[in-house]
Specification:
Elements: E1 7-9, E2 12-14, E3 18-20, H1 36-48, E4 52-59, E5 69-70, H2 77-90, E6 94-100, H3 119-123, H4 125-138, E7 144-148, H5 153-158, H6 172-190, E8 196-203, H7 212-224, E9 229-234, H8 255-260, H9 272-284, E10 291-294, H10 300-308, E11 314-316, H11 319-323, H12 327-332, H13 347-353, E12 389-393, E13 396-400, E14 410-419, E15 425-431, E16 436-439, E17 447-456, E18 468-471, E19 484-485
Parallel strand pairs: 3-4, 3-11, 4-5, 4-6, 6-7, 7-8, 8-9, 9-10, 10-11
Antiparallel strand pairs: 1-2, 12-13, 13-16, 14-15, 14-17, 16-19, 17-18
The structure holds flavin mononucleotide.
Flavin mononucleotide binds near residues 98 and 352.
Amino acid sequence: MKLFSPLRANGMTLPNRLVVPAMVTRLSGEDGFVNGPITERYTRFARGGAGLVVLEAMAVHGSKSGPLLRISGDEFLPGLRDLAARMHDAGPGRCAPQIIHFLKISRTGWRQRVNDLTIDEVRVIPGLYAAAAVRARSAGYDAVELHMAHAYTLSSFLSRLNARRDDYGGSLERRLRLPLETLAAVRAAAGQDFPVGVRFDGEECVKGGYTVDEARWIALALARAGADWLSISAGGKFEDALPRAGQPLYPYTGYSGERCMPGRNYPPAANLYIAAGIKAFLVQHGLGTPVVATGKIHTPELAESILGDGKADLIGMARPLLADPDWPRKVQSGRFDRVIRCCYANVCKAKDEHFQTVTCFLWPRGAINAPHSDDQTPPQWPGGDAALTVRAEAGRVSLKWQAATDNEAVYGYDIWRAVENGPPERMDAVPAGVCAYHDGGVVGGMRYRYGVQAYDLAGNRGAMSAEIEVLVPPGAPAGIQSGGQV
Ligand SMILES: Cc1cc2nc3c(=O)[nH]c(=O)nc-3n(C[C@H](O)[C@H](O)[C@H](O)COP(=O)(O)O)c2cc1C
């Protein structure tokens, strides 16, 4: 598989094309130091076998924020150094911190905008990134990724909504100025031979923001300036964030936030057209800069077809690898059937929003990391069957089954559904302890077939329950959501 072929970027060899894109964990304290739980989270990712693990955004400056890692001073070096060494020991992949500068926000709803920065405040930013990149290199990281996406400073300079009247705003060329100065400063300070990637929005997804049309030119400018990879994200903006009394704005609550972390209502590879458009444009201009595509890419078939079609060079999987960091290892050994599969319920996103430790709702209750097991014995249904009952009423189907048993522990249940004569598709999952589900995404007059399958900590799947067919009666009661555990 191309997915498991190596990729070279500025002297760094990634053993495969799978990337854990940056994902804030909220495991650090407000002091910003690496701690035990952070180390556990990242060594877990490394052990799972991803080719590149990008560590969550770390601040390059000292501005106050909630729990966030920091790389803004030498006092953070011992912890960062220890973490890099442990990640290298744990797995075959490379590791790179994402480094970030953000503007101030307050609980009153006020936020600092690029227009508010004095020219002196603008001019110090490249140096802050450069110093952070030098620290990353000296701490033993293989590369660094500059955060130019979402609601943060460099993204806000790139934004089509950046209306500064000086050399740093207005036209595309001026909006690119600070990001390019930052890239140049990082290069100069950290060395030409130190790989430097850039993450930026391929579409802002807010009214008046740029789309892939202009992002192609941004990509071209960054690639020509020597970025070693371009990781394409989308949205995540303050402009459409929902204000909540007494809370600082969280830039993922509006439509642009949905586009950044597309939920279960979005199709697979929802943002692929953006990365593919950028990749094609770079190729057309003779540039081979690797492009990372991310956003609801989950199956090996989908990932492989994206690489095979040349739509991207690397596949980012954030929530799927949070759900199961062993995805790369399992798929490489031909065991996708053992992967614990993300269902894009976005509980992780909600936790981030509320400054709570980011966990996956499929993990065992109370766990702060994904479990690991090499057990081979699948769960069983007591008495040999799930005793699945399926009840259809107007607008909704309700499922109930009996709990499975396992030699280690039952971890969860996959819910399968087939529509009319179509093939069964896995539509959702619920954690162990939940033995009921409702499907509010049904249409009256149609037939559906349902099945349930238990899985254990290692992802071994037990036997599928007997399949039950129902005809949904016409009419729809009010207030039913489409899908969810009961
Ligand atoms: C909890 C959480 C935290 C995230 N933190 C970051 C971050 O620090 N930097 C970043 O560039 N993207 C961040 N993202 C966005 C992801 O890297 C990724 O682009 C997004 O989740 C879509 O990919 P996926 O469908 O594979 O999850 C975060 C996403 C989640 C769910």
